[in-house]
Structures are given as structure tokens and as C-alpha cells.
Amino acid sequence: MTDFFKGIPQIKYEGADSTNEFAFKHYNPDEIIMGKRMEEHLRFAVAYWHSFAYEGGDPFGGRTFDRPWYDSGMEGAKMKADVAFEMFDILQAPFFCFHDLDVRPEGATFAENKKNLEAIVDIFAEKVESHKTQLLWGTANLFTERRFMSGAATNPDPDVFAYSAATIKSCMDATIKLGGANYVLWGGREGYETLLNTDLGKEADQAAKMLEMVVDYKHKMGWYGAILIEPKPQEPSKHQYDFDVATVYGFLKRYGLENEVKMNIEQGHAILAGHSFEHELALAGSLGLLGSIDMNRNDYQSGWDTDQFPNNVPEMALAYYEVLKAGGFTTGGTNFDARVRRQSLDAEDLILAHVGGMDCCARGLKAAAAMLEDGKLEAARDARYADWDKPVNKAMLESGDLTSIQERVLADNINPEPRSGRQERLENLVNSYL
């Protein structure tokens, strides 16, 4: 045991009337929602990088946090693992997520990195045996070190491609050893800063080859977890190839991988792409590619990905409505890809940020379930498209051509008038569940 969280109690559900800030007001893991426990619906995960590796920096300033495991090599990494599982126990978190660089110190060579990662994974393996918290997903950090400044899979240097492939294998091995449910690929440097030195076709082929090798290795190892791609339009690169759900789907179709890969969708990245979170979730759900979500929010007055904890219940309700419509999570879950503000220095701040986020998501889930079970929103949607169920209109889609359709319009004197989309009524309906 460490003393980092000394004096902080395990967080338990006390209900909406509780005045105890160290208690859940809305997140009741055992509450049954649509036939499943709330915990099983939400599948919360703590992000190792933001909670334990983030130092409090922003684009204009460096470290503000003072954590005892910083700058301490492997001993610090071991202490960080102890602190992490103490926090997981306090929150009763069912899952966590990590990059390799979050959990191990950077070595002088790939061999040293591999050795360091394997040593920490051995510690994790003991901890997941004796703790409730399991691994939701693992991933490789292929963006922080300067070797990745021009990308990883898409790098013009074949040696960087090889180093990246070797790193991914190590991280997949770690994920599989720990019983992880997913493996995530995020291409923060897979893109370009200028087209003047970029070969788009070559870089796309390289990215596809890397993804094909990841899929092949999954099958070779007999692993039943999901491979997930996380879309983001830019930052740190000027333009990233995994721009949004639609772009990733086009890439997967182009290379015949649409049946092998799903998506990990983040609220903040959806906003940077010019979409809403529910749009990206709805599109992924309609394509059968919704895998998992990173839950956070951006500050709409800042121009970068601020990764704040969620606090907007209406947004969460619409998000979980799309998750539930898509059938809910299977291997995926709700990962808090969020960090406390650089002025929030205390251990209590880290715990309470998660408590608030978990309560917010719980409220959103309950509202979403109520909307779906009531059926009024779906009934209104179905009514809007009801005429497409008439035989003549079904035939138009199945076997119509321009000539026969024009003849029908003339014969039946079709002269349609606009129909109301009833947006405000539906917005009022949604608000009635909140």
C-alpha cells in the first residue's frame, strides 16, 4: 500500500439525496437497466495515461503536478502500478486502459523497452488476479518519442515502420496476456504537416499493411478480442488519416478490412471533426462498427483537445441512446480519456473527477434507456419514413429506373408538398426524459 490516496474512502452509491462528495449519487452498479446491471452497461475504465502519467502540462506550460513516481525509472513505474490499483479499488472501477509508455520508462533501445514493459505486465498480471479491475484495452504509444515525428506505420523511413510493428507486437502480447478485451490503434502522427513532402497513396498502403499484420497476428494468437481504430481529424498532425468514422470506414472498405476492425469513438475527437458525439456513434452503429468509446469533453472556447471529464447530461443521454440502439457494448466500454485540470493538484481531485463523470454517464444512460423503452422517438422516426413501406415505393428502390419512375409521376400526377420534420417537438420530447 502507498499513502497517495490516504484518507480517501472507497466510493459507494448513496443516492441523489446524499451530501457526501465521496459517494455516487446516480451510479448504482447493481441497478437493473433494460435487463442488465448498470455496471455491465457502462463498463467504466480508467485511462492510465491521464490519471497517472499526465504531469499537468498544456501547450504553453509544463509540469504542475508533483507525483512521487515521476522521474524514478522502474521503481517509479512499480509504485505507479500500486497507486493505480489503489485508485481502481477506491472507484470500484471494472476496467483500465494503457499505452506501453504510460506504464514503463523509456529505454535506450527497443529491447530495453520490451524488457521494461514485460516486467510491469507481470506485475499487472498479479494484480488483475487479485483485484476486480481488468483490462479493457491496451495500445502502443507511437507518437510521443521523436522517432515518430513523421508517423509510425506511414513513416517514410522503413526502420521506423519496423520499430513500430515490433512495438505493436509487444503491446498486443501484453494485452493478450492480461486478458484484455480490445486492442486500440490511434494514429496521432499518421497524417501529414504538408502535402509538399507527402505521398498519400504510399502512406495509405503502409497503414493498411500494418493493420493487416495486426489482424493476422490476432488470428494467429487465437485471440478473440476486438481490434479498434480511434478516429481523430488533426492534432498533433495537421491532418490525420483517421479523420472521422466515415473516413475510417472508407479506408477499411478500400483494403477489405471492414469485417475485422471496429471503432473506438471519442467525444472530443468528434467535436474536432465538426460532428456531434451522437453523430459519430450513430454512424458507427449503422455500419456495425461501434466498438467502444472514450468519454470526455472539450472546452469549446479552446482550440485544442482539452480532454475534460464529462458533465453534460443531455449530451451523454444522446450518446448512450445510440450505444443502446446499436445493441450496447460487447467487448467495449466507457473509458475516461480525461484528465484533471493543471490547477487540480490533489489526489482528491483525481478521485472526484471520476466520481462526477461516472454519475454524469449514469444519468445519461438512465435517460437513454427510458427514451428507448418508451419508444416515442423511434415511433416518430418510423412514421417519417412510413411511406417507403408501401409496395410501389419498395419496388421503386428495388427495381426502379428513371423512365418508369417518370411515367408513374406523370400518370399519378405526383406533386408532393413538403412535410414537417418536427425537430422542435422531438427536442422537447428528449428534454422530457432529462
TrEMBL record:
Entry keywords, A to Z: Carbohydrate metabolism, Cytoplasm, Isomerase, Magnesium, Metal-binding, Xylose metabolism
Active site (UniProt): 99, 102
Protein localization: Cytoplasm
Highest taxon listed in the record's lineage: Bacteria
PROSITE patterns in alphabetical order: XYLOSE_ISOMERASE
Binding site for Mg(2+) 2: 266, 269, 305, 307
UniProt cofactor note: Binds 2 magnesium ions per subunit.
Binding site for Mg(2+) 1: 230, 266, 294, 337
Assembly and oligomerization: Homotetramer.
Protein name per its UniProtKB record: Xylose isomerase
Organism: Celeribacter arenosi
Gene designation per UniProt: xylA
